[in-house]
Amino acid sequence: MSQQTDEPLRGEAAFRAAKERVQKANEAAYARGREERAADAADAAGRRRTAERASLKNLPKQPHPH
User: How many other CB atoms are found less than 10 A from the CB of residue 37?
Assistant: First the structure.
């Protein structure tokens, strides 16, 4: 049976605990990056749409035959 003590982990248990901490930190960083990239992509798409609308307003008018 395992007993809970206040002693620091040693050996394989310490390695596994450190590996788990690194894995959790990596997953959190990956999630933050994914959110930031999604926000940046949404901003870029908005700027593209705005620029497209502005360029369409500057098109020359077609002459109308009378």
Answer: 10
What are the tens digits of pLDDT across the range 8-62?
889 999 999 999 999 999 999 999 999 999 999 999 999 999 999 999 888 888 8
Would you list the DSSP string of 26-55? HHHHHHHHHHHHHHHHHHHHHHHHHHHHHH
The answer to the question of residue 3 being in a domain is: no
- What's the domain range around 43? 11-56
pTM over 0.70? The answer is no
66 lies in some domain:
no
Instruction: Identify the sign of the CA torsion 38, 35, 37, 26.
Output: negative
Count of structural domains within the chain: 1
